[in-house]
Input
Amino acid sequence: MAREQVGQAKFQVPGGQATPAPPVGTSLGRYGVNLGQFVQQFNDKTREFNGMPIPVVVTVYNDRTFEFICKSPPAAALLKKAAGLAKGSGTPNTKKVGKVTKEQIDDICNQKMADLNARDLDHARRMIEGTARSMGLEVAE
Output
């Protein structure tokens, strides 16, 4: 008997710190997935991210098995880490809260290139710079 896909769940969990509590439990519990098994596999795979939010897409099959794909962390989380901030600006057009360099933006682009819908590095750089500006960060030369 072939495995048939019965559902797909998308959510963000801190890397290496997943628990069966929400959002994991509420997203996967309805499919009858073994939550302990998912949490253990996810934490082993994302241990190096250490608390940074990781988007994950879980595909569940009719025999209650699952596969999951971990995406790269959100650009905002990577920018906050690069700038050393706890959060972005509440009014980004008037109040700037930090700076990031072109080298830091290039590093972020290289990490996220697989998940971005950009043709090349220049387009990816412009997308990440736009995210930085909307968070109240200045892009230094």
